[in-house]
Write a structure and sequence with these properties.
about 325 residues, about 20% strand, 6-stranded mixed β-sheet, alpha/beta, 12 strands, Purple Acid Phosphatase, chain A, domain 2
Length: about 325
């Protein structure tokens, strides 16, 4: 007798074997970032992404174990990533002890780490504890020919002062998936100006990778699966021939391409969200529906191999067997 997971895996095999193969098996570069540069200065390398641990204050919570498992998974990746990017929501309630716990678990990684915040990290004390643990939420650096950018995409307009909310009430409001109170998220004016200055002197041929907690396109605004000023971000970065965007928050495998931007959603290490009932341009990028009987199903990390032409191969590293054949072997971005 087939298990539900076996059935889903087998039934999915009628689809693509990889995202770069057509339904009739002809290899096609369906997903690319701009045109391949003829004089690329990128040295091939690999980096890993972890996100959305949502650690609670109670000791020995299952989410602690899940994050530790992801760290172990990354440390065993061959070859090792050059660095690890954490895409936000280390904490569940923004408490300093939760952030400290996350930092301790992530310190077991054997390569450098970079961090951006999520809304669960931020709104208890407006990022004070997060900054104390992880530094500035907005930054950039260059690595082997690629320009990397991290931005805080979970900033909202002040809804708490006029309402007389306590810090905990503010955090409770931001924790809700479909809050009617907090309004849309964004990077806001100061970061947009910072971004303009950061990329002003870069040539159009420079490969760019941007990390945000929320997606830089309107996936599902009711759940804040969007960033309000993403159009401005895409406009600022529109001059670049090659532009990748990676985000957390959605707890799903999801892909989209808008203009010169290739956008990839990442797995969480805490729980998987169901997919909202909206059409996606790349439906084969959806993971199989998670099995509630398997406690770690739908969870994991990911690593990305960037090639000399800045085409990359995204590999999801799930804890269990929850990927459709279309994304099991990695897919081109």
């Amino acid at each position: 007798m087939l298990s539900r997971r076996d059935f889903l895996t087998i039934s999915g095999r009628a689809g693509l074997t990889t995202l770069v193969a057509s339904a009739v098996g002809i290899n096609l570069g369906l997903v690319q970032v701009g045109r391949a540069a003829t004089s690329s200065k990128v040295t091939p390398f690999r980096f890993a992404i972890l996100t959305d641990a949502h650690l609670f204050s109670m000791p020995d919570h299952k989410f602690d174990v899940f994050l530790a498992s992801a760290v172990d998974q990354v440390n065993k990746t061959t070859p090792l990533p050059d660095f690890v990017m954490y895409l936000g929501d280390i904490a569940q309630n923004g408490r300093a002890d939760q952030l400290d716990k996350g930092k301790r678990i992530l310190s077991k990684l054997t390569m450098p780490l970079h961090f951006i915040p999520g809304e669960h990290d931020w709104y208890l004390d407006m990022g004070e504890a997060w900054r104390g643990h992880f530094g500035k939420p907005t930054w950039s650096f260059d690595h082997k020919g690629v320009h990397f950018i991290g931005m805080n995409s979970i900033l909202v307009r002040d809804f708490w002062t006029a309402a007389g909310m306590t810090p905990k009430q503010r955090m409770d409001t931001m924790e809700m998936l479909e809050s009617p109170i907090c309004g849309p998220w964004g990077v806001r004016e100061e970061q947009l100006e910072w971004l303009k200055n950061d990329v002003k002197k870069l040539g159009a041929e420079t490969p760019v990778v941007v990390f945000t907690h929320s997606p830089l396109w309107d996936y599902y605004p009711r759940w804040n699966f969007q960033t309000e000023d993403a159009p401005q971000i895409r406009e600022i970065l529109g001059k670049f021939e090659r532009f990748m965007s990676f985000h957390g928050h959605v707890h799903q495998t999801v892909y989209n391409k808008i203009g010169n931007m290739s956008s990839v959603g990442t797995l969480s290490t805490s729980w998987p969200w169901p997919y909202p009932d909206v059409p996606l341009p790349y439906p084969d990028m959806r993971m199989n529906r998670s099995d509630p009987a398997l406690v770690m199903d739908g969870l994991g990390g990911q690593h990305i191999d960037l090639e000399a032409n800045f085409q990359g191969t995204m590999h999801y590293d799930p804890f269990g067997d929850m990927l459709k054949p279309a994304i099991k072997s990695g897919f081109k971005v």
